Fold:
Amino acid sequence: MRAWPAPELPDLDPSGPPVRLHDTASGGLVDVSPAEGPARLYVCGITPYDATHLGHAATYVGFDLLVRAWRNAGHEVSYVQNVTDVDDPLLERARKVGGDWRELAERETALYREDMEALRVLPPDHFVGAVESIPLVLDLVRELERTGSVYRVDDDLYFSVTADEAFGELSGWTREQMLAVFADRGGDPDRAGKKDPLDCVLWRAERPGEPAWDSPFGRGRPGWHVECTAIALEHLGPTFDVQGGGSDLVFPHHEMCASEAQVARGGARFARAYAHAGMVGYDGEKMSKSRGNLVFVSALRRSDVDPMAIRLALLRHHYRADWEWTDEELWDAVDTLATWRRALSLGAGASAGPVVDGVLAALADDLDAPSAVAAVQGWVDATLGTGGLADTSDPDAAGQVHRLLDAALGLSL
Structure:
């Protein structure tokens, strides 16, 4: 599966500091600079049954900041993202609209690419669909079988979570907390024949009317979690730097991915750090299809909204925060960009050194985009002043700030 085109990015001098990130598993900030080689990131991608909404966009813009912060700190980056292009939500949507699930997945994935390109999100090095990863999944299931952690319920294969001594350490949740949400998040805790209610499907046997592929275990399709586990292990190795996604993936998805990998690879921790983006709400509730309160990036773009204004509105919230989208925030971002462009058009301006250092330091400190945006606004205010030019001591200030905005914040102005 192809990703979207990568924009050209300017180099920054000076380079940024080492990057620290909040790790869900430990509850604290950890240094995520790679010990050697490239920084390695896996971010769970979309299930393409509908268009990209602003909750998706906030997550992918957030982890785009991580890629940029690593690059600005002098690291190469190996970035992997999946597309769950076969799964229950996609099949259910296709049945409801009377269409082919493949066409639906292809159409919405194409729209996602367009949205990411418009928002100047850097593309992953490996953009991998679940369907194309089936051979990897089958290899991983074989590995897990050899550990004794796989069993059958009818013709389905399940992973036994008790095989991983570290199960639960990523989320820190109790069994009661896990069981309270498992059924609503793709699990089947009440299925008869399971060894543990929390065990998850690795390979789902063919059902009437559903897609299926041949395998040594019978015709069927992958479970949700094992897809990401197999893709990450293939492209990033047994232990990588950061696994990211929305906070609704902490359990069960990321917990299950980690356990499957750790059992298959002899206990090696799946990711050094687990980072999770907050949820975006609208009209008082979390943005979701079931609630009918989605705001789509493509719809805003079709209404001639500047994609950079959408991105700026997202950057004004910390990636880990839960917050609510409002139209007022978007229009304020439009006005703010107009002011920033006016300051940049002057060429000269307030000294660029402090804003460059401030932005890079803020982003290296758990991707603190709101502080970075505030630092840029400080430079704009100092350059424009209240009655025109206040400080034009740096003749190349606008050029430096323009490069900073592009390389660090993804704002091409």
Observations:
- The chain is about 40% helix and 15% strand.
- The CA atoms of residues 84 and 130 lie 5 Å apart.
- Residues 54-72 form the longest helix (19 residues).
